[in-house]
Design brief:
Number of strands: 20
Helix content: 25-40%
Shape: globular
Largest sheet: 8 strands, antiparallel
Strand content: 15-25%
Number of helices: 16
Distance between the termini: 49 Å
Length: about 525
């Protein structure tokens, strides 16, 4: 690994730790659309609608619904006025709910910016013509960018296939949240990308994830500028045997809208974040395989291991539809729930595609800080997935450092159950990784984070991911070895209402688009 490459990652992390930059004026996120493209609505089952079938397009629709706004608050301002007792012509209802409904997604995202886009390279089927499409999540429809068979382009990008295939191509808009999070936003966005990848791979569709893509070839296929939107993963799945062979139309897609704020965010981004992105996705970027940056972690002296209850099978598909970030947590978490969550986060539950991702050598290790869990003494633990047990690692008599949770809500919630930490404990510290390895590590951390959240939902627990943490304080509390770094965390407890917040009735679908 070249010293200059390690320096790119180190300089970026130094900027994140310093946190001295002042983000630009807040720019609300904009969705991306292609106004000149032909649009194909997908089936969106809601109350009274016909359920999705087993056809290829319906199965695709089920996958994509994991990123669509699947719920809308249907309470009106008049209804809110009746509930609160405030007159409709006063500003009180508007302050509490400033619109007729609020779009929400099942897949979480840092700051709800959702910095990812989904494209479809479709080989063709009786219900959808072959071509390259962009997915419009709020309207749950496909926008045709280029007609014709993408097979030849996919062969260049993914390798020659023996059978027809479709592919979802996942992209990252790295500057979408810059105005809110500054340099940290780039790291947070990579984790968000892993969250989306995990969400899509919970589908029962026979899918294969591909992470080693040439960004230039992907950009040519989709007509993207990698500086503003870079392709980080593909998901292949089988196509029907008889597909059209008309070549993909030449030229690029029609002009897109919704990237103006991304350009402003890029111009205002910390130079170290821009340099890290260019080192990963630029045409001259190093192509060293990310997996070369890691060897198995060192052994730790530890206390007596704690064998966990056997992990139960979980319905992650159902959990993906109702996953939500908790605003409050209650006590009452059990050892069985923690065992299920840890096993799922480690790739021991879920689809074969998710298990394959967990076998990657940069997949993070999992530590657990139990506070009030029935059947698990309060302590810090390292999870051993192959033996399905916890090994105590916390320093004797250690207390939580309040500096690790500077926000009062965080401090209240962490005492209610357990906190899972995703940790890099490899041969090189995080700030010495190549840009490609840094990106892969955080992408896989997002996968593990979302699997833990889905498992929490499936077991009846509640969870909330927190991207920001005081790494030194957390490392000391967990008893991490030298060079190991906590990347992100998930608070887990039992569902509890948040005092003072009005709960609105939620329904499937969004008829207002």
């Amino acid at each position: 690994m070249a010293t200059s490459e390690a320096g790119v990652t180190g300089r970026y992390l130094a900027a994140v730790r310093a946190g001295t930059e002042q983000p630009a004026a807040y720019l609300p996120p904009r969705g991306k659309r292609y106004p000149g493209a032909a649009r194909r609505p997908l089936r969106w089952p809601g109350p009274g609608s016909v359920p999705l079938g087993d056809g290829r397009l319906d199965r695709l629709s089920a996958m994509l619904l994991g990123y669509a706004p699947r719920r809308a608050e249907t309470i009106t301002l008049a209804g809110l006025s009746a509930l609160t007792g405030a007159p409709l012509d006063t500003p009180t209802p508007s302050r509490l709910l400033p619109g007729w409904h609020t779009l929400r997604r099942s897949v979480p995202s840092g700051g709800a910016f959702h910095p990812n886009e989904i494209y479809l390279a479709w080989a063709g089927s009786p219900d959808l013509a072959a071509g390259v499409y962009h997915y419009d999540p709020p309207h749950h429809c496909l926008e045709l960018l280029r007609p014709g068979s993408p097979a030849a382009r996919l062969d260049r990008l993914l390798g020659v296939a023996a059978a027809p295939r479709h592919a979802l191509l996942l992209t990252h808009r790295p500057w979408k949240n810059t105005s809110k999070y500054g340099a940290f936003g780039y790291r947070l966005g990579i984790v968000d990308s892993g969250v989306l990848l995990a969400q899509l791979l919970t589908s029962p569709v026979d899918a294969t994830p591909r992470l080693d893509l040439d960004p230039a070839l992907a950009g040519e296929l989709l007509g993207l500028d990698a500086e503003l939107e870079a392709t980080y993963a593909a998901i292949e799945f089988p196509a029907d045997a008889d597909v059209p062979s008309t070549p993909l139309a030449s030229g690029g897609p029609p002009p897109a809208t919704g990237l103006d704020h991304d350009r402003l965010g890029r111009d205002a981004a910390h130079p170290s974040a821009v340099a890290l992105h260019r080192a990963t996705y630029g045409r001259g970027a190093d192509r060293e395989p990310p997996a070369l940056d890691r060897v198995p972690a060192q052994r730790l002296p530890a206390g007596r291991p704690l064998d966990l209850p056997p992990a139960r099978p979980l319905d992650l598909v159902a959990a993906a539809a109702r996953r939500a970030s908790a605003a409050n947590l209650g006590p009452g978490l059990t050892a069985g729930q923690v065992a299920d969550i840890l096993a799922c986060a480690a790739g021991r539950a879920g689809s074969p595609a998710l298990a394959a991702l967990a076998r990657q050598r940069l997949y993070p290790e999992i530590w657990c800080l139990a506070r009030t869990v029935d059947g698990i003494p309060a302590d810090a633990y390292r999870y051993q997935p192959h033996r399905h047990r916890l090994v105590p690692t916390g320093p004797p008599g250690a207390d939580d450092d309040a500096a690790a949770y500077p926000h009062r809500v965080d401090r209240r919630m962490v005492t209610r159950g357990a906190t899972l930490y995703l940790v890099h404990a490899g041969s090189r510290p995080v700030d010495q990784l190549t840009p490609a390895s840094f990106h892969r590590l955080h992408l896989l951390a997002g996968v593990a984070l979302h699997l833990a959240g889905l498992a929490a939902t499936a077991t009846g627990a509640a969870s909330r991911a927190l991207g920001g943490l005081a790494a030194d304080a957390v490392a000391a509390r967990l008893g991490l070895p030298d060079g190991a770094t906590p990347l992100t965390q998930l608070l887990v407890g039992t569902p509890a209402p948040r005092p003072g917040v009005l709960a609105a009735h939620l329904t499937e679908g969004n008829p207002h688009g």
